[in-house]
Amino acid sequence: MLMSQDYAVVFYRVLGVRETLFLRVISPYFYFTTGVNSCTIVLMQKILLYYKFTPIRDPEAVKLWQKTLCDSLQLRGRILVSQHGLNGTVGGDIDDLKRYVKATKQYPGFKDTVFKWSDGSRENFPRMSVKVRRELVGFKNSDDEFEVDEHGVIGGGKHLKPRQVHELVEQYGDDVVFFDGRNEHEAKIGKFKDAVVPNTNTSRDFIAELESDKYDDIKNKKVVTYCTGGIRCEVISAMMKKRGFTDVYQIDGGIVKYGESYGDDGLWEGSLRVFDDRMTVNFSDHTKTIGECTHCGGKTSNFENCARAECNDLVLICEDCKQNPDLLYHTEACRPKVEAV
Ligand SMILES: [Zn+2]
Ligand SMILES: [Zn+2]
What we know:
Blueprint: E1 8-13, H1 17-26, E2 30-34, E3 38-43, E4 45-53, H2 59-72, E5 76-82, E6 85-93, H3 94-104, E7 116-118, E8 128-132, E9 148-149, E10 152-153, E11 158-160, H4 162-172, E12 176-180, H5 184-187, E13 190-192, H6 206-211, E14 222-226, H7 231-242, E15 247-251, H8 254-262, E16 268-270, E17 272-273, E18 280-281, E19 303-305, E20 314-316, H9 319-322
This protein binds zinc ion (2 copies).
The site of one zinc ion (ZN) has 7 residues, from α9.
């Protein structure tokens, strides 16, 4: 079912079935739903996801250029620019997104950026935001951790296509260890089978984790790092190699690309947490639910914002428990104290 708020909708009254079919043939970007005496033409929208590590001498100038470009194409989304490159998610009409890709590739450093197309629309974002940040990925002081040249991050893990991930596992079996590069809560609802999930609430905890002795026993194994779209692993894999991990890999395009190839019939299990209003994405109609409700332990992939206004954490809570407003707090500490009478 198409949601009208997801698309720009134009009504063409009294269009016959034959014309409708003809228009459908000439333009793949239009969807049609026909009624008795009306036909709805829906302009198709999509979301683009991309990142590029490349040295940027003047991030402010790139920011202004990107903001002007996106506004002129009526895109919405989030873009970060840093001295290390560009990271963005933007939604809009397919034709406008194509124009955006073409214009962005004009900048020499962004020429071979890989743009991933995903389902969604500009309505998935409240506005267009373009910001300059010290770091492209939020690790504390990670800009001291690695350097970037025109080929990307220097000293990162080897890139694997989804198929090559399977080949590695077939060849080396238990000697291959999956390492979750995301925050802990994301792995609660979906991860690679038997993956190591570090204890991290924010990306900032990552360096402390890597510097502990917790992972000494896997330092000589084949460690495959993974994250949502691949960007965090560019940095994580470099940080791991610097700390004595000897054979580090990263999945090209992250879980998103892997899921497109293997869905729920490979080594991935569960739902993928995403950072727009969709909250989670499933790769097939037979996604396994691996998350457990914080309160009753029932299977769920449903995250809700903690009801305490000042808290930015999420609570993993099933549809039943969610009905009880007293349970919508992510820890006891966030639940309002009942005053003793
Ligand atoms: Zn529950
Ligand atoms: Zn809370």
